[in-house]
Amino acid sequence: MAAKAAAVSLTVNGKPVTAEVDPRTLLVQLLREHLRLTGTHVGCDTSQCGACVVHVNGKAVKSCTILALQLEGANVLTIEGLAAPDGPLHPMQEAFRENHGLQCGYCTPGMIMTAVDIVRRKGNDLDDRTIREELEGNICRCTGYHNIVKAIAAGARAMRGSAAASQAAE
Amino acid sequence: MSITGIGAAVRRKEDHRFITGTGHYTADINRPGQAFGYFIRSPHAHAAIKSIDAKMAAGMPGVLAVLTGAQLAADKIGNLICGWMVHSDDGSPMKMAPHPALANGKACHVGDPVAVVIAETLAQARDAAEKVQVEYGVLPAIADPAAAQKQGAPQIHEVAPHNTIYKWHLGDANAVEAAFKSAKHVTKLDLVNNRLVPNAIEPRAAIGEYDAGAGTFTLWNTTQNPHVARLVIAAFVGMAPEHKLRVIAPDVGGGFGSKIFIYPEEVVALWASKRVGRPVKWVAERSEAFLADAHGRDHVTHAEMAFDAEGKVLALRAKTIANLGAYMSTFSSSVPTYLYATLLSGQYQIPQIYCEVDAVYTNTVPVDAYRGAGRPEATFVVERLMEVGAREMGQDPVDLRQRNFIKSFPHQTPVIMNYDSGDYGASLKKALEIADYKGFAKRKRESERNGKLRGIGFSNYIEACGIAPSQAVGSLGCGVGLWESAEVRVNPTGSVEVLTGCHAHGQGHETTFAQVVSDRLGIPIENVSVVHGDTDKVQFGMGTYGSRSGAVGMSALAKALDKVEAKAKKVAAHLLEAAEGDIEFKDGKFNVAGTDKSAAWGDVALNAYIAHKFSGQELEPGLKEGAFYDPKNFTFPAGCHICEVEVDPDTGNSEIVAWTAVDDFGVVVNPMIVEGQVHGGIAQGVGQALCEGAVYDKDGQLLTGSLMDYCMPRADHLPPMKVDTTVTRCPSNPLGVKGCGEAGAIAAPAAVINAVTDAIGTEQLAMPATPAAVWAALQRAPKAPRAA
């Protein structure tokens, strides 16, 4: 049975947000259903696929694994907030496009958010083996990963010193 | 070649919305007043539904309705159908059992939907579903296709004694027998083509909406072919007349075949929306998808190949049992017959081929087309026989293949297909160079020094794409024609909309179809929009599967562009006050031959609409043309994939250390997209070979029912891939294209297993070749080669 709705206040893509949610609401549900930020996708129900990866306080989190109410005061960044609406694309977004790192696009937001987090943790010079190991939590069914790996290596290089990189790492 | 024309590696137009999270997948769409559906599914593989008590659930908060199969039948909602008729050897039609969208009286597999709860919120629907009391009478179940026909096996459907749907054959059994009698060597193999779960990362979803005022239905659906969905739901399910049903396939997150079919959930979403007077949304959970999306493959085969003293193939024969699951899905009957046995000649001159196929029901999820659909199964049979034959006869597998290649075209095989073009030797030669075949022995020695077993495997596949012509498929039992349509709408400002009956779910049609227009009309691709996936916009089309969008869909576009050019020349003639015959069209410009008079594309487009220069009597205003293209033949992409593995004998782990693919797809429209298609296909084929496999226990419970249990290939399962092409033009279509979507998935499983068995020195290895399976095979191997 549904428990009484509770309020949660957080920052999403730089904007303050307050929502009344059923306590069992997951972060991904808060984003998609309450805030209509549908760029974050749900691809599984066992936290395996990574389509729902967002950044919470600067770190990659599978938004299907955390309750919305745990996010009180948190700073959440989704794919919609990675680049300014009227500004240039984030270097990682641009690298996915340039290297054909996506086909159907469904896993792509999670891949890009994960990729930015890999760069935060592992730096701008990423070898093939490192990227493949770091993608352990993200599944793509279309690309065979070949071009995703290329895109992440290129995106990581392009992020070196870019303003977008520091924004994403916030 | 222009920078955005045919052959250019143009970056994709559709990518911007996907990399910014602004795409519109079905689950992203919300309709005013929508309610949510949650399905109650059978936990038993085979059970009588004795009663459904929904009283308690109906009183739960937010519940609008609990609907069952009995109500569905009372509302005269028809059954789902299989649209390809296959006849048994005795002439009797296939035994198609009733398939209601909600089970009525009996459930036939775990996951069979038996009721649906409609509520204000999804959480409320789920809560209420727990309170629906379904009383089952559990029946004995059968999941093993090889045992389904045996005496005493549980009988699933009354219409199909011994659970046999059809007993079908292709070829001349006596001629094959005679060829085998004269053989110098016969290679025999027992093969299992493992059952796969497609697992497009976007789960299936549907929103049904009934407009009571207009009496019309709209369905937003994760489908690869919205028009086929509309046709079936209108004409067979009887939901609404075709003109009162609109099907929209918005952004679709991968299909791989699994989103071709017409499924119970979309029918129920439509029906329920009328019952409750609200839009009804359903989105599959991943674990639900494992039980509700059609699975792929699942063949059990005995195959034999006869060779003469020179290693020439004399004949091939195969006996296959194909598991179609609990119900016949939309195109299930065609996959193990006309998409399988017809490809058993591979790339080889084989004088005689005979194939028997028994299709059976089991208490498992229905099985239908999955990337490659029958052709991976055929390639696995042919290429395993070829490789093992070479090993048994002590010949180089490359030499044996070369000796048997078809070298002149057209080539009529003994199994229906007439190959139109190819150069199999060229693909093989290029692949051998890229893979450095000559250096393999040295690499193998190096691996041995590191305690690893190295193996190399080849797969010289053939596929038949386009799945056409209509007359041919009609004669083979297909219930539809497999042509494609295109419409080109030129706007007064010269920009162009292309409407295609194909549907993109990752293939990049918005870019490649625009490239064809750009190439032809000389306008930038930014000025071209590709419209697809909405039955209210596109009049009709057959959708996207079988690598058909290039070969068939783009051919329709080329034909429509011919008509646009012809009409535009008439307009230009009036505009330039010249004879129509003197107008030349080149690089987006209309010239009067032998003069310096010319008109730009935009001028002609504008004049077609303002029509000031001609009277409507002699020339109609407007510039819009459509075409239906029915191909003359299938297309026959082919190629050579070479896989190199290192097996760790202590753990049985097989690491793919190199992959080379050289494919002949005919003319390539966008090499970047084609390479991506090959990469993805290889990944799915590697998945089948090394890690994926749907496992049922003897009671019909799916043991691999989530992404925790079913091993999807991840980035570190796969190597960087070397992908290249050779080109022989397809002679039967205007652009010379053949199709590339399935090649990797067709080629890869045989290449991997040929490599792993080469490494471990035994052929006794089933897919998926998991570390445990490989380790066990090594222990069983008579002379297990141990690394030095």
The chain pair forming the largest interface, with residue counts per chain, is:
A-B, 58 and 62 residues
CATH topology of the largest domain in chain B: Aldehyde Oxidoreductase, domain 4
In percent terms, what proportion of residues of chain A is strand?
5-15%
Q: What portion of the residues of chain B fall into strands of 2 or more residues? A: 15-25%
Number of helices of chain A: 6
Q: CATH H-level name of the largest domain in chain A... which superfamily?
A: [2Fe-2S]-binding domain
Report the biggest beta sheet of chain A as strand number plus sense, adding barrel if it closes: 5 strands, mixed
Derived structural class of chain A: alpha+beta
CATH architecture assignment name of the largest domain in chain A: Orthogonal Bundle
Provide an overview of this structure.
The complex is a heterodimer of chains A (170) and B (788). Chain A has 170 residues and is of the alpha+beta class. Chain A folds into 2 domains: 6-81, Roll (Ubiquitin-like (UB roll)); 91-169, DNA polymerase, domain 1 (Orthogonal Bundle), CATH 1.10.150. Helix content of chain A is 35%, strand content 15%. Chain A has helices at residues 27-34, 91-98, 108-122, 128-134, 146-159, 163-169; strands spanning 6-12, 15-21, 53-56, 59-62, 75-77. In chain A, strands 2-1-5-3-4 form a 5-stranded mixed sheet, sandwiched between helices. In chain A, a hairpin with a 2-residue loop joins β1 and β2 (15-21). The termini of chain A are far apart. By secondary structure, chain B is α+β, with helices and mostly antiparallel strands. Chain B folds into 3 domains: 31-139 and 202-253 and 259-292, Aldehyde Oxidoreductase, domain 3 (Alpha-Beta Complex); 299-467 and 633-780, Aldehyde Oxidoreductase, domain 4, CATH 3.30.365; 483-629, 2-Layer Sandwich (Aldehyde Oxidoreductase, domain 4). In chain B, α9 runs parallel beside α18, α14 runs parallel beside α15 (549-575) and α15 (549-575) packs across α16 (601-610). The longest helix of chain B is centred in the C-terminal third of the chain and has 27 residues, at 549-575. The radius of gyration of chain B is 27 Å and the shape is globular. Classes of the chains: A alpha+beta (170), B alpha+beta (788).
